[in-house]
Design goal:
This protein is α/β, with parallel strands linked by helices. It is 26% helix and 28% strand. The strands form 3 sheets. Strands 3, 5, 6, 7, 8, 15 and 16 form a 7-stranded mixed β-sheet that branches. The chain has a 6-stranded parallel β-sheet with strand order 11-10-9-12-13-14, sandwiched between helices. Helix 2 crosses helix 3 and helix 2 packs across helix 8. The longest helix is centred in the middle third of the chain and has 23 residues. The radius of gyration is 20 Å and the shape is globular. The structure holds NADP nicotinamide-adenine-dinucleotide phosphate (NAP).
């Protein structure tokens, strides 16, 4: 039987052991749609699965990780898909409880599969992936909530991260004056190139600890959580809006109600997990192929060979990754 390459996490003695292996189709989890994987990506969630942080990956049997993939359908029992279709799969249980993107082939439920919209290549789809979808949902929700460029500065925390950098570029493309908040002092040039017109260091944001600090932003997107959520809320203008997507520093909050009670700000939750309806998912992918397609996607995404996957994971924990890491899994299809 034909074998192919996969990167799987085994849980041995309570600890994750990751290795490249040769699998056959019979080894993969069941699903209606078989996809030849072209590209995957690395997100913080993948790094957590590989290193056993947070226990987000199944432990009862090995799992091909990789929460994102793009590729070509090679067979489908689901009538919505045909051989040759270019598709992307992100989130749901992919790469944590269903064999995911780090293998030459994937077999997944048809309900998880998004046909790639015109205007996006398989590579670009993974330059976006979960991170792009998160950024796009934040832009979409803030715009629907009435936020407009002429209202003032829009802050993005964790700005050099996968989600943050795509958000900076998407908001800039929509005409917003974007303030990128980042701890990476050497990345000012990158942040300006992708659309930031103002750079704030983490200290710039964190120094003023007053429950209501001088208003700075008309709206903001928080990818970091914790004290960053608190400081962004405290620096919103009256009726400002805060889209909350991430928790890079953790899930706990310590804040005051004053921004809500005295400045009437709104907080919008951002979640692209399986709760995001497929119709919404497709609509956001269509936007990412058109009016939200980042002008600097090539600078934000960086390809790595499949073989370098494991050694790249740790960079997510020492916060040295900039932008989105695309993994060249199988075919080098564009
Ligand atoms: N809501 C959703 O549906 C959804 C979907 C995907 C991801 N997420 C979450 O969104 C967040 C960002 O994801 P990502 O893929 O962009 O991760 P990432 O590439 O690792 O980027 C996170 C960024 O946050 C900043 N950061 C990290 N650790 C920090 C610390 N200790 N203190 C202050 N800033 C810190 C860094 O930006 P700077 O160095 O530029 O400051 C880092 O680049 C994660 O929490 C992830 O779980 C949520």
């Amino acid at each position: 039987m034909k074998t192919f390459k996969a990167y799987r996490v085994h849980t041995i003695g309570g600890k994750p052991v990751c290795k490249f292996e040769q699998l056959t189709m019979d080894d993969l989890d069941k699903g209606d749609v078989v996809i030849e994987t072209a590209y995957s990506a690395i997100t913080y969630k993948d790094a957590m699965a590989a290193r056993g942080v947070g226990k987000n990956v199944r432990t009862d049997r090995p799992c091909v990780t990789g929460v994102d993939l793009s590729g070509t359908v090679i067979s489908s029992a689901d009538p919505r898909f045909r051989e040759g279709d270019k598709v992307a799969v992100t989130n749901y249980k992919l790469g944590v409880n269903q064999d995911g993107g780090y293998a030459d082939y994937a077999r997944v439920p048809g309900d998880w599969v998004v046909p790639l919209p015109n205007g996006l290549s398989l590579y670009e789809a993974m330059g976006l992936g979960t991170s792009g979808l998160t950024a796009a949902l934040a832009v979409d929700r803030l715009e629907k909530a009435g936020v407009k460029p002429e209202q003032g500065l829009l802050g993005v925390s964790g700005a050099t991260g996968g989600v943050g950098s795509l958000a900076v570029n998407m908001f800039a493309k929509r005409g917003f004056e974007v303030a990128a908040i980042s701890g990476k002092k050497d990345q000012e040039g990158f942040l300006r190139k992708i659309g930031a017109s103002k750079i704030l260091s983490r200290e710039d944001l964190l120094t003023d600890k007053a429950p209501l600090a001088p208003p700075l932003f008309a709206a903001a997107m928080d990818n970091v959580g914790g004290v960053y959520f608190d400081r962004l809320a405290a620096r919103l203008q009256p009726y400002g809006k805060l889209a909350v997507a991430g928790m890079a520093v953790g899930a706990e909050l310590s804040t005051s109600v004053l921004p809500w009670v005295l400045r009437a700000v709104d907080v919008l939750g951002i979640n692209v997990s399986r709760q995001l309806h497929m119709d919404e998912r497709k609509r956001l992918w269509a936007r990412m192929a058109t009016d939200l397609k980042p002008d600097h996607l090539a600078e934000i995404s960086r390809p790595i060979p499949f073989e370098k996957l494991d050694e790249t994971m740790d960079r997510f924990f020492n916060v040295t990754v900039v932008g989105r890491v695309v993994v060249e899994v199988g075919s080098k299809a564009p």
